[in-house]
Specification:
about 350 residues; Immunoglobulin-like
């Protein structure tokens, strides 16, 4: 099969971490994704939960080596000229499985072909090949310029979050949960007391529900004075997994059109979710009972095709003040459940 010309680009992306309903967690990873013909290549791989080798949390020397490897400035890391395109976000071990491809030069062009799911030294194209993906021919100048730009230190760097609120015990639990999944978090009562250089290290500021509007405005003004256009999160409820999901959404570096989850709304009867490509989606409902204890209910876990979908909700799971979290590989959305008034 002849390789047709395709455009090549790079864009910051993330694998959303989170505290899951069963108490487990998944690690947050920031990485640079491959954009082929204007669309993330990862989106063509259905529900795959993976990151590219160009992750921001690897040591600089390894990151540089990965870039130069994709530029074919050394031997291929795998037999038969194969390179890892996407790997396990938790351990990056080939034994967990990885998407690999042959990368070669053809004149001035670079060709990616023979995509496969690989778990050992050799790929089996007959049984594990991605037969509907590629081959892609990238113009050499465009390909080299995109990757070379990463070598000047312009790769996306994961930032920390600043937590502001009245309930110190809750903030401490939230900070611990964020650190567990790989996001740095600090707590303060007043952002005005934080030096400007430190404020520039934060990607989001999170406000508890009890923080008055004057304090929120003062905090955002401190970030503006430091020259930081920071994302801000208004905590919906004192529920740690819910707050983590809100923060993950705020830290998402990708534009809306390059996210898998694009819309989530919820009523007492159903949740409406929209996805841009086939992927696994998990919906979880959270609420506080009369004793302010967190109640969690797994609503849905399955692969959805591109488009809009309606998922029924158990009225008992979303009674009172409640919320729904939708998770897909690389995306997370949060919605408060709206309850219609008797009419």
């Amino acid at each position: 099969m002849a390789a047709e010309y395709a455009t090549f680009g790079l864009a910051p992306a993330m694998r959303a971490g989170g505290v899951l309903a069963d108490g487990d967690y998944q690690v947050h990873r920031d990485f640079v994704d491959f954009i082929v013909d204007g669309r993330p290549l990862l989106f063509r791989l259905s529900d795959l939960d993976a990151v590219s080798p160009l992750a921001s949390d690897v040591p600089p020397a390894i990151f540089t080596a990965q870039v130069r490897s994709l530029l074919l400035e050394g031997d291929a890391p795998l037999p038969e000229g194969r390179y890892v395109i996407y790997g396990c976000p938790e351990c990056e071990d080939l034994a967990c499985g990885a998407v690999t491809a042959v990368i070669l030069r053809d004149g001035d062009d670079f060709v990616w072909r023979d995509f496969a799911w690989q778990t050992g030294e050799h790929a089996d194209l007959e049984f594990n090949g991605y037969h509907g993906i590629g081959p892609y021919r990238f113009p050499g100048a465009e390909y080299r310029a995109a990757l070379a730009a990463l070598l000047d230190g312009s790769a996306h760097i994961r930032r920390r979050v600043l937590l502001i609120g009245a309930r110190v015990a809750l903030l401490a639990k939230l900070a611990a949960a964020l650190r567990t999944i790989g996001i740095g978090a600090d707590i303060t009562a007043d952002a005005g007391d934080v030096p400007a250089d430190e404020l520039r290290a934060y990607g989001a500021v999170v406000f508890g529900r009890a923080v008055p509007e004057t304090a929120r405005a003062a905090a955002l003004r401190a970030f503006a004075d430091a020259g930081v256009d920071v994302a801000h999160v208004d905590g919906l409820a004192p529920i740690v997994p819910l707050l983590v999901a809100q923060i993950e959404h705020a830290l998402d570096p990708g534009p809306a059109e390059r996210r898998r989850l694009t819309r989530l709304t919820a009523t007492g009867a159903a949740a409406d979710v929209e996805v841009t490509s086939p992927c696994r989606v998990r919906l979880t409902a959270y609420r506080l009972d009369r004793l302010h204890r967190t109640r969690t209910h797994e609503v849905f876990d399955g692969v959805l095709e591109a488009g809009g979908h309606r998922v029924g909700l158990d009225a008992r799971a979303v009674k009172g003040e409640s919320f729904v979290v939708a998770r897909a590989p690389g995306s997370v959305l949060v919605a408060a459940v709206t309850h219609g008034k008797p009419g």
